[in-house]
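Page 47, continued from p. 46.
Same chain as before, 114 aa.
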Amino acid sequence: TNIVPIIEDARHPLKYRMLVGMVDVVFADVAQPDQSRIVAHNASYFLKNGGHCFISIKANCVDSTVPAETVYEQELRKLESEGFKPIEQLTLEPYERDHCVVTAEYRPAAGKKK
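Result:
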């Protein structure tokens, strides 16, 4: 199989580490205040260097006291600090309010050309 859904608490990747090997892509839709940390933690176990991540950011789940755009920027900075290079960010308006999806590359090779 090339798709493995993990129905488990994403904050504890060691619980399912032995079930999944290294992967090329991680899709994360966790809706937690620390979702960027959760994605980075899982990436460190499962995502190959140069692999990609798709993360759904729900601004109100992260911080409902600031504008959604501010939350998106903060989350992008967190992902960058964990070795991700953002590629694209798309809001899901008008389908989902205060949601966006970010595509990022994990630990890209230095000097890699697109």
